[in-house]
Structures are given as C-alpha cells and as structure tokens.
Amino acid sequence: MDHENLELIENIRQQFDNTPFPRIPLEQSPKDNSELLYIHNLVTAYYFRNRRVINTEGKVILDAGCGTGYKSLVLAIANPGAKIVGIDLSEESVKLAEQRLQYHGVANAEFYALKIEDLPSLGLEFDYINADEVLYLLPDAIAGLQAMKSVLAPDGIIRTNLHSSNGRAGVFRAQAAFKTMGLMDGSPGEVEIEIVRETMEALQDEVGLKAFTWNSDRAQDQGWIMANYLLVGDKGCTIPELFALLRATDLEFINMVAWRRWELMDLFKEPDDLPPFLAMSLPEASLEERLHLFDLLHPLHRLFDFWCGNPDQTQDVVPVAEWTEAQWREGRVHLHPQLRTSQIREDLMNCIDSQTAFEISRYIIVPTLAPVAIDTTMAACLLPLWDGPQSMVSLVEQWLQIRSQIGVNLKSVSDETAFEEVKELLIRLEVFLYVLLEP
Question: Which of 35, 92, 300, 426 is deepest in the core (most CB within 10 A)?
Fold first, then answer.
C-alpha cells in the first residue's frame, strides 16, 4: 500500500480513536427495535435469497468495522445462538465494543483491532458479514471486499453499503468546502467540529449548502457533524460503479436491503400507462439498469445498502405466487422472528378485542412504501404463529373455527374458500417478509 493510503488509514484510525462511533450510551439496548433487528437478522437475508428459513444457532457472524459495538449487539440479539466477531481499525472503539457486549451479558463474542484486509489472519469462516458504513471509507474497496469474500462461507451473505454520489451530493460538497478551509488535513477533532458549526450557522439560511444539508437541531451532536461534514476518507459511487466493484471481486448482487424502496415503477404517475418508449424498454431493463435509472431520477437514498454473496449459490426457488395446490397444502408458515414478541402479540390481541385494524408495518416499515394493515378478524388466524411455525392446513382450520365462532356476522364458507382466503393473506404478508413460507 502506498504512502498516501497508509497516511489516510492512519488519519481514519485517529479520527475514530478520538471520536468513537456510534456514540450510543452503553446501557441502551436494541431489543425492542424490531426493524433494526429485522435488518440484521440472517433469517431476513437468507430467506430473501433462498426462500428458506435458516436457524442462526451455531452460525458465525462478522461485524466488520464494528465501531463501539452497537451493531454487534444488534447482531447478537437478532441471531440467537450465533457467535459474534467484531473487528475495527480503532483500538479505542474495540475496547468500547467489548464493554458494551459484556454489559449486556453477551458471552459468545470476541473483538479484534484489525484492518478488514487482514481478516484471513483470524482463521475463521463466516456465515454472515455485516460491513455497515465502512466500505466507502476504505482506500481500496475492492481489496476490502476481496478480504471479506475470502472468509465467507460458500452460501454466506454479506450486507454492506456504499455512499451514493447523487444521494449524498450536498454532503460531499460540504466536505470539499471544509477541505478547502484546511479542516480535514489530518484527523479532525473538537476544534474543527466547532468551526464547522460556526461556519454553517453564520451562513444565510437560503445559501444552497446550508439549505440542503444543515440541520440546526442535529448540529449539537458532534458525532453527526463528524460522520458527515468531516468524515475522512468518505466517497461516493454510482450504481454502475457498485456493480463493477462486485464483478471485480466475483460477488453476486442479491438486492437492496430496502428492496421495495427501489422500485422504479413507483416513480411514475401511471405505471400501467407509460409513454411508448418506456413501456417498451423498461420491461427489458436489467436490475442494474433499473436501479441506476432510479438513482438518477430520484436520488432519495444516501446509501446503496445491499446484500451480496458468492455466485451460483442461490437455491432453486419457486416464487410463492407460482406454488402448486399441493405445495400450498404441504406448506409451512413462519412468522418472522422479529415479529414474534410478546408485546406485538399483545398488541394484536388488543386490536382483536377492540375490532380495530392491526397495522403490522408499524413494527417493521423498511420493506414497505405505505402502512400495511390487516383486518383483525382475519389476523386472528395468525395467532398460532407466535407459538412457532404452523402448517398451512392448521391455519385454515384456525380460520374456519374463528368464522364459526362469529358466524352471526360472517356467511359460512367452504373449506376451499377459507383456504383461498388464508392463502391470499399469506401471499400479501410474504411480500414484506412478515411471514416466511416454505413449501
């Protein structure tokens, strides 16, 4: 590695030694944050790729660039029985990460002050790698991804992200301004943070940089300023550059973590009545082309947050919408682990008692574009899922029993009609991975 990159890495290390990130109190627990746990649960990524439910017991999970260990704690809670390994460039951050997991009683975890490029020295193979908010800081992202790939299990999955050149354009402009002022020559600290704060507050409100990037309320948070305006090594990329990076490392793009929020057709007023050119060309566009066009038309996302893995490892999958009658009859239904909490079950029971719609998306909104609510009469047939996986047949029987108990308000139906009603509900929920279906 050349002198310039070595100096950059040292500046990054010093920055996070001086200002460890994230600055989340030691005692704060994510155990009730269903959405955060959903994103960091191996079950989510594995099911999305293979339409199979995986047991996290005994799995080995890497938190690459663990910082102060909050995401390591999230990974530990989201993946019961898994071993958590965290690495970070900053020794100070690693110490804080160790303290955090010890405080929360997580015994099966270990941490190392280590560069991502040196991962092979651990002699471990990982079923899941979380490299969150780190890849865009590496001087050589290809080398970083290659190092992670070298320790990834054959069917393992990497969740990582890169900054969007378009979605973060204003912040990159701010960084360029503060580089020009000499605030990022070394490792910025409290003095530089205060200069940024004073400079931005001194600007008139209509000045472009302030209008589009500054938040006076968040400006009191030193970590927010450091992670945006003074982030040493930060850089963005485009969708084509992301895919070129994966091709260079022989990794397969699985999809964006918030995949529904990247749907190109949602940008049009009338998706079923497009101009002729678009109507002919868009159906033929590759996933890469569709994501690229989305980012150009509507740079909503600061992050390209995605899953990837070794090529040719995806299991043969029959989409739920194409299941045969026999597959449905033999199907097994799981509630996503992050919805299987006593509090959410209690909330559902309260909705049933009060006959109000059960808004399931309030717990996990990330895969949706709008609230997802279920009629509570119908939702009641899902209650057995809080006890564990159920057969499709048993859920239909549950639904028939519920209907018979409230038959005054519902017309009697045949077994076939009840089966179709339950199937329709499950198909709707499986789109968001609220329920996981195995034939």
Answer: 426
What pLDDT is stored for residue 130 in this prediction? 98
Residue 370 is given by DSSP the state S
> Which pLDDT score is estimated for 1?
63
| Cα–Cα distance, 359 to 429 (Å, whole number) | 12
pLDDT of residue 32: 95
pLDDT at 167: 96
C-alpha distances (whole Å) from 107 to each of 32, 40, 58, 84, 333 are: 20, 19, 14, 9, 32
Q: Is the dihedral of CA 198, 199, 205, 209 positive or negative?
A: negative
- CA–CA separation, 72 vs 300, rounded Å? 27
Cα angle, residue 48 at apex, residues 270 and 159 outer, rounded to 5°: 105
Answer yes or no: are the C-beta atoms of 67 and 88 closer than 8 Å: yes
CB of 344 within 8 A of CB of 374? no
What DSSP designation does 314 have?
A: P
Supply 184's token pair.
């990022």
Rounded CA-CA distance 70/112 in Å is 15
Task: Answer for the pair 15, 67: CB distance below 8 angstroms, yes or no.
Answer: no
**Tens-place pLDDT, residues 250-260:** 999 999 999 99
Q: What is each CA distance from 307 to 190, 239, 295, in whole angstroms?
A: 35, 14, 18
Task: Using the Cα atoms of residue 213, residue 219, residue 223 and residue 229 in order, give the sign of their dihedral.
Answer: positive
Residue 45: enclosing H or E segment and its boundaries?
Answer: helix 42-50
* Residue 273: how many other CB atoms lie within 10 Å: 8
For the question of whether the overall pTM of this predicted structure is more than 0.70, the answer is yes
User: Could you give the angle at the alpha carbon of 258 between the alpha carbons of 255 and 262, nearest 5°?
Assistant: 75
Task: Give the Cα separation of 238 and 162 in Å (integer).
Answer: 9
Average pLDDT of adjacent 10-residue blocks, the chain of 439 residues: 81 87 94 97 97 97 97 98 97 97 97 97 98 96 97 98 97 97 91 96 96 94 93 96 98 97 96 95 96 97 98 88 94 97 96 94 95 92 96 95 70 85 96 96
Contact status, residue 245 vs residue 354, Cβ threshold 8 Å? no
* 82 within 8 A of 61, measured Cβ to Cβ: yes
Amino acid (1-letter code) at residue 86: G
pLDDT confidence of residue 254: 97
End-to-end CA gap in the chain: 50
Q: Are the C-beta atoms of 132 and 160 separated by less than 8 Å?
A: yes
Q: How far is it between the farthest Cα atoms of the chain?
A: 79
pLDDT at 157: 98
